[in-house]
Hints:
This is Pilus assembly protein CpaE. By secondary structure, this protein is α+β, with helices and mostly antiparallel strands. Helices cover 25% and strands 33% of the residues.
Amino acid sequence: MIGAQLARQLKEAGLVWKPALGDHFAIPDRDLDDEVFVLSNMTIEVHTMPEGRVIGFNGTTEWALDDVEIEETVWLPREDQLRELLGGTFRGLRRDPAGYAVTIALLGEEREFVGPGAEDAYAAALLHLLAAATD
C-alpha cells in the first residue's frame, strides 16, 4: 500500500476515488495521520446524505467519529488498483536494484518509473499519466 503523502499527490493530480468495499484510506490533519481505515459493509461504509457523500463509522466508539466527508480523506490504492488505473499504458513490472520498476507506453514512447515498492513505482507512473492528461 502506498503512503499517505504519495496518495495526497495522486489526489492533488486529479485521481478520483470511487469508494468500494475493501478500499484503504487515511484521514489526514485530524491527529489520525498514522491510521489506515478500510471500507467494510459492517463498520465503515459510504453513505449518501443531502450534504454529499460521507464515510460513516458504525459502532466505532473508540474514535469519537460519526462520519467524515470523502473530500477530507485520502484513498490509499492497492497495487492491483494502481495497475488497473494505468490501463492499456502498462507494459511491465520488474525488480530493480532500487526496488521495482514499472514501464508504461504513452503516445508511442516507453517510460520507466522506479520506487522502493511495486506500489510506489505504479503510483509514480500514474502521477506521470495524470500530469500528461492535464497538459
